């Protein structure tokens, strides 16, 4: 079962529609309003929702040792060309284009309200393949004709617990790992695949901090997973009334 939708809060829906349309080629689905717009990201939708509170009010920090949501990842072609367009427009980058572990090329940058985004070019070459069929299906997607949603990244305390939860409740499969041997924090990445989308799971040997989800502040709000509502998790209500569940690491999601 895949990630169906990603809700991103913004202070100006039209400005965000223009940003995601220009830099990530995400077309509108239906008519936007000043309060909401839905964009087609090929394998999922990105839903923009207007909020009053801006980037300065978020408790999200650009430190992967903070548990919960980290970034949204999009598979692309021509990464360097796309990054150059972003740079020329004055978009803030967290990480310039580089060749990363797993034989992919990546870069990180921010949307107008501070949501961290990643572009990835190439097929990951996993340090360990745990589900050959899942990896084959991922590679069968091919080079995207336009940027497509690939993953939401989260930092967790216990990868085995996260794997078991999303496998047992939503059918995600742990397809492989990427190791970061040069990172002194003991950094490892696991990939949980559901449909054509992925939950990218960061783990570290170092002590981590926690963050409560903020559903009414600009930035990532929550993901929507295909499946039934879980039992036993903390529940929050999003400003538009959606019931949102929070896993033990602070990752927020709804179900559909």
Topology:
Blueprint: E1 3-10, H1 13-24, E2 36-40, E3 45-50, E4 68-75, H2 79-88, E5 93-100, E6 104-110, E7 116-121, E8 128-129, H3 132-140, E9 148-155, H4 159-170, E10 173-179, E11 188-194, E12 197-203, E13 219-225, E14 234-237, E15 243-246, E16 252-255
* Classification by helices and strands: alpha+beta
Helix content: 10-25%
Mean pLDDT: 97
Number of strands: 16
Count of individual helical segments: 4
In whole angstroms, how far apart are the ends? 10 Å
What is the makeup of the main sheet?
Answer: 9 strands, mixed
Textual characterization of the structure:
With 256 residues, this protein is of the alpha+beta class. It has helices spanning 13-24, 79-88, 132-140, 159-170, and strands at residues 3-10, 36-40, 45-50, 68-75, 93-100, 104-110, 116-121, 128-129, 148-155, 173-179, 188-194, 197-203, 219-225, 234-237, 243-246, 252-255. The strands form two sheets. It has a nine-stranded mixed beta sheet. Strand 11 (188-194) and strand 12 (197-203) form a beta hairpin. The chain is globular, with a radius of gyration of 17 Å. The protein starts with a strand and ends with a strand.
Short précis:
With 256 residues, this protein is α+β, with helices and mostly antiparallel strands. 17% of the residues lie in helices and 38% in strands.
Question: Descriptors for this entry?
Answer:
256 residues, nine-stranded mixed beta sheet, alpha+beta
